[in-house]
Amino acid sequence: MKTFWRVLSYVLVAVIAAGTTAVCFVVEDLTSGDKLEQVKACIDRYFIGEVDMDKVEDVAAGAMVEALGDEWSYYMTAEQYLSYQDTMDNSYVGVGITVAVREDGQGIDVLSVTTGSPAQAAGILAGDIIVAVDGQSVVGADMSVLTGLVRGKEGTFVEMGLLRDGEETVIRVERKRFHIPVVGYEMLEGDVGLVSIANFDSKCADETIAAVEALRSQGAKALIFDVRDNPGGYRRELIRVLDYLLPEGPLFRTEDYRGNVTVDRSDASFVDLPMAVLMDLESYSAAEFFAAALDEYDAAITVGERTYGKGYMQVAFPLTDGSAVNLSMGKYYTPNGVSLVGVGLTPDVEVPVDEETAAKIRAGILDPAEDPQIQAALEALGAGK
Fold it and tell me: Any bridge partners for residue 163, and if so which?
């Protein structure tokens, strides 16, 4: 009897093996193309479930770039690439309102309405509470949810569900493109002009130069440039600002992926005023090289905290489906040929701040009189208390 069951088990194994072999014989050849094409073909032909191939390709592309091990290279979906372009252009498509999530979670407060905006034309008021967008509740939602719902293509409309004086109303608003100011400026004590640069993306040079000229016309005798929490931006914008501020000489060095070195230079005209630069760990790339160039020319005192240390340049390569790959393809150096990668720039006057103070600085709500780094810069320029 044991012999019978042993023989039967052999027969069953043979049948199973034969069945498996038979399935393999009907599988089509998947050896054409590279590995990724073979995997895609395998999924296309044989996967038993539903598949969103666009999602599969997005994840695969993202994984390919991530596998490079470079923190500055990344893949963007078509939607993310559109948002990236808006960011680099310092603009966005929206309705023209400033908002904040309510502390009680019961909607989103409208803090202000931009003059001349579609929101103002449609009748939205500061003090309104947004509770729904296009019929979808935003009660309990965070800011990213609201942003995703409100933003869209220019010229399209969005319906805002609002609470006003306890009554609910729906207002239809057209989406339009808005420019986001890059530079802010004000006169501080001692006739020192403060120029705050949010980034070095589009329009940075025009606005920075205009700000300096405005402060000089008001009698500024010294300048403080604030590039704290500045993520960097375009090389062309950085070069224009440095060329305006610094005398004749090298401003910036770039080495591309082929090893070719380009040196950008300044002309002889410059701004002949004492200067200081505020920086911190959130100062990246162009912001760091801005401070480094002024420092190497002895044109400014650097104040604050060490910068991050980003010294690679990226180029966005658009793909046919609207997505893009942002890839590191070169290295940046200071006028003297110094790389900041991994080391950053250490300030002449180190002024660390606690987390609470740093958060207020990032939010732009700390009065200059209460800002220890601004006060240290004023003191270094001989204008402090």
Answer: 129, 168
